[in-house]
Amino acid sequence: MPPINAGDTAWVLASTALVLLMTPGLALFYGGLVRGKSVLNMMMMSFSTVGLVSVLWVAYGYSIAFTTDKYQGLFGGFEALGLRGALDGSTGADEHKIPVLAFAAFQLMFAIITPALISGAIADRAKFGSWLLFVGLWATIVYFPVAHWVFGADGWILSKLKAFDFAGGTAVHVNAGAAALALCLVLGKRVGWPKKESFKPHNVPMVLLGAGLLWFGWFGFNAGSALAANGLSAMAFMNTQVATGAALLGWIVVEWLRDGKPTAVGGASGAVAGLVAITPACSTVEPIGAIAIGLIAGVVCALAIGLKYKLGFDDSLDVVGVHMVGGAVGALLIGLFATTLSGGTGDINGVFYGGGFGQLGKQAIAVAAVGGYSFVVTWLLGWAIDKTIGFRLSPEAEAAGIDMAEHAESAYELSTTGGGSAFALAGIAPAPKVEKTAAAPEAEKVGAE
């Protein structure tokens, strides 16, 4: 058993905390994009996922995803239920001299954010209890097995197909994006979408703050996936930064040419698209290739989000256009831009570096397999929940505001005359309304002078 490397362990633990930060960052990003009467529900969908998936991961999720395969590369065994065998200070694979428990904690954060990403597609209209049931079932049936396919040492995509996905372009983003498409089809459109009511973001600075936290945390997501503080993590770090910057520029240029003005929301969305696209490729391309991937992803995703209006599906916060499309773009472009000159993982050269089309084909199979499996199973899960306990909020509750309907509180208490919110339920009376006296107009006049 190799000794534990303290520096590598410290880097993985720090990366674990960075990836956890991404889920609150996502909550802010999504929360700013919805209406003011939906922001708390939107954020709670992310925060509740942190709690639920953490428990499921310890109970059986890690075991399904990362123990020795006994089922033809489809999912692992059950010998690590409750994280048995991960508490004795043993290390992971020989080349990764870190405690198994550190690796399990790091991968837990991926398991948390993946279902949280789906929530943006069904903003404003999902019952909170039904959402929690969905997350538990989806993580169990979809994410944990797919994580084994892509990340497990003997998972079929990694070990048999030999498709590359360094940090989760397929397992996280294509997976979540395909699920988002299925779920928004099951739940249907928001009341009034897209014509009767404005669904503009209620707080753009919150969107930018959330995007900034996602960008910051993503260095743990990508560079942390090296599982060591070494040259590979440094390369993933640099590629993450330059691809994200290029995607931001690509997105706002599309807006500039198409709409006449670049927007702050577009810049934030472009940055996220770049982060998504470089995730699978950050260990196999040079920085110049990362810039190309980011630029392509920014342009393609900016154009892709318009498909929901043409095809008629209500993906509230463009999860499909950013995560499914961005993840697929990044995974496929490995087949074009991968190079052994980068010194990263994988002994492959893409088409642009003298390789053939074989790797591109393998990447396409991985994207199609993950996306297809996720879409079909998610549609069935969503349909079953909707037909049993109900998934969709009532039109009346949706119109009144999902925050009050599902959580009995609101994000912004701007009125001094009404009840409502958890404060009212607790018996805390609102501040008395100040009535103007006869002298008030004169006082206002004097003050103005």
From TrEMBL:
Cited SUPFAM superfamilies: Ammonium transporter (SSF111352)
Pfam family, one: Ammonium_transp
Gene3D superfamilies in the cross-refs: Ammonium transporter AmtB like domains
Major site of localization recorded for this protein: membrane
Residue intervals of the Ammonium transporter AmtB-like domain: 10-412
Compartments where located: Cell membrane
The UniProt record lists the keyword Disulfide bond: no
InterPro entries to which the protein is assigned, alphabetical: Ammonium/urea_transptr (IPR029020), Ammonium_transpt (IPR001905), Ammonium_transpt_CS (IPR018047), NH4_transpt_AmtB-like_dom (IPR024041)
Regions crossing the membrane: 12-33, 45-65, 98-118, 130-151, 163-187, 207-229, 235-257, 264-281, 287-307, 319-344, 364-385
Membrane-topology descriptor: Multi-pass membrane protein
Gene Ontology annotations for the cellular component aspect, listed alphabetically: plasma membrane
Keyword terms of this UniProt record: Ammonia transport, Cell membrane, Membrane, Transmembrane, Transmembrane helix, Transport
Recorded GO MF terms: ammonium channel activity
Function summary: Involved in the uptake of ammonium/ammonia (NH(4)(+)/NH(3)).
Quaternary data: Homotrimer.
Family designation: Belongs to the ammonia transporter channel (TC 1.A.11.2) family.
Record protein name field: Ammonium transporter
Organism: Longispora fulva
